[in-house]
Write a structure and sequence with these properties.
Layout: H1 4-16, E1 19-21, E2 27-28, E3 44-46, H2 52-55, H3 64-68, E4 75-77, E5 80-85, E6 89-95, H4 101-111, E7 115-119, H5 126-135, E8 142-144, H6 150-160, E9 164-168, H7 177-187, E10 190-196, H8 209-212, E11 215-220, E12 223-229, E13 237-239
Parallel strand pairs: 6-10, 6-11, 7-8, 7-9, 9-10
Antiparallel strand pairs: 1-2, 1-3, 4-5, 11-12, 12-13
């Protein structure tokens, strides 16, 4: 049933607090560098307008005949032969802290080179360098970037033209699930978003990720399993290493 009073209250709230932290969801009346609730920087964005709208290229329309003739080339991921993906895939990998999510993501992008990896939480650090040495990943076809802005993310994508893009950890970015899905479709490659879980098992940040992603993979205790996929049955899985 339509509630007029609730609708008016929501409209007034949107007008009074037009900005939101992409990390914790806290609303604010002005655009600031730091979130007053979670104390993280660079995550405040407008609720009604996003810079990514001007950065992503428009998707051309197709008629029914052309769309029906389009061939969807499903392929295996080399390091995980039981995992199937397709061009333009938006993949969500999620799990609790210490579940080997980043290790899984690195092994995926090793199989889908050239790759561009954004370590949004841990940065380009000795920890990341040590993980690469343990996994014996030394390919020049995997590039690591740490941009501070959305424009920097898309500039890096245009500069390197990767087939696989990894956003680890997506909850530290202002990119929404819709942004990442649009990026995957526009590149016709694979975009992998890694998201950390809260203690209650829910996802940190935007909870619409599982609905919008083409493939959802759970990583926990060194194991991975497909929870949802447009490319295969949801019974695949195995060891991260």
């Amino acid at each position: 049933m339509y509630d007029f009073n609730s609708s008016c209250a929501a409209a007034l709230t949107d007008r009074a607090y037009p900005f939101e932290c992409a990390g914790c969801g806290t609303r604010s009346s002005r655009l600031t560098e730091w979130c007053l609730n979670c104390a993280r920087s660079g995550l405040i964005c407008a609720r009604t307008w996003r810079p990514v709208d001007k950065i992503l290229p428009p998707t051309p329309g197709l008629n029914a005949k052309s769309l029906a003739a389009m061939d969807q080339k499903i392929f295996r991921v080399g390091n995980y032969p039981d995992l199937f993906l397709g061009p333009g895939a938006c993949v969500l990998g999620h799990g609790p802290p210490g579940a080997m999510k980043s290790t899984w993501a690195l092994r995926v992008c090793e199989s889908l080179r050239p790759a561009l990896y954004f370590p949004l939480e841990e940065g380009i650090s000795p920890v990341l360098a040590g993980r690469l040495r343990r996994l014996e990943i030394r390919s020049e076809d995997i590039v690591f970037e740490m941009p501070r802005t959305l424009a920097g993310v898309f500039a890096a994508v245009e500069a390197h033209s990767p087939f696989c893009i990894v956003l680890d950890s997506i909850q530290c970015s202002t990119l929404s699930p819709e942004d990442v899905l649009s990026l995957a479709r526009s590149r016709q490659g694979v975009v992998l978003a890694i998201c950390q879980e809260r203690k209650d098992g829910g996802l940190k940040g935007n909870n619409s990720w599982p609905h919008l992603a083409d493939c959802v993979v759970k990583i926990d205790e060194g194991k991975w399993s497909v929870e949802k996929s447009r490319y295969q049955a949801c019974n695949a899985g195995g060891s991260v290493l």
